[in-house]
């Protein structure tokens, strides 16, 4: 069996384990689905034999195993009818370890550094579905989520400012967006699914663009100056940052509206300011390559590949269909 076919098999098993978690009604079966998901992810990550990749996979395995042990322990303790609020808090913290939200985040940017963009996309989107589903079931009257949201919004925005690696920037961007998804859970529990779907579409488009142009660092955005899809890349960056009138803005608008209805005014202010910081470093990444003084081809909106044009249309039309 070729490497490509093996990769497809593990990806299908990953998706099947996610469906298992989504359809399970028992905590133990949810835990089992998450373990299957973790064990199928490790061969998916192992593309070639290298010391650096082996170290990253070992870090990923240990972190995920730690979260799974805490979750399994809390599931077993539930049967003894102990303090249920404390059990819910500890189960939530185990999911935060798996998601890589602050203060459990240092492993994630380092692991994602220099990672291939196709694997990167799977790690920051598909691998977050299972912990988010569990967290949404624990979100009612969960006091710890507000603290995690504030730390995720601030750390995700401030830590991404001085980064040169696009992988790390996308990782910190994921941490910042995680705060918005958690807020959606606290206010309107079904809203986080819409947010996650649209965030995944935008991230997929960016990862495909970076993968096609072999871009891993911010200075490479300038080196690849003959790339006619720079306008599209800028559009996706602004979309991810939530600049109006792009679909990413409507997501944050709906979340802010839900926060105002629920009375989370202080957290709303912090998250809006953190979103402005993330938008700043998105724009700074594309600023030099879009300067008019640079002798590059910038305003050719369509290139020979219709694939990218269709992806841009999906990013504009698909979110509107989901949000209606």
TrEMBL record:
The chain crosses the membrane at residues 9-24, 58-76, 82-99, 144-164, 191-211, 231-251, 263-287, 307-323. The keyword Ubl conjugation does not apply. It is a multi-pass membrane protein. GO terms for biological process: mitochondrial electron transport, NADH to ubiquinone. It is an enzyme of class 7 (translocase). It is found in: Mitochondrion inner membrane. Coiled coil: none annotated. Signal peptide: none annotated. This is NADH-ubiquinone oxidoreductase chain 2. It comes from Trachypeplus jacobsoni. The lineage of its organism: Eukaryota, Metazoa, Ecdysozoa, Arthropoda, Hexapoda. The gene is ND2.
